Amino acid sequence: MWGVAMCVAATAAIGTARLAAQDDDEADRVGAAVVVLNEMRDAPDNGIPQSIYDKAEAIAIFPSVKKAGFIVGGQWGRGIISVREPKTGRWSSPAFLTLTGGSFGAQIGGTEIDLILVIMNRRGVERLLANEVKLGGEVSAAAGPVGRAAEASTDLQLRAEILSYSRSRGLFAGATVNGSAIKEDLDANTRFYGRALSSEDIVFDRAGKAPASVTVLRTALDRPAR
Question: How many domains are contained in the chain?
Answer without folding.
Answer: 1
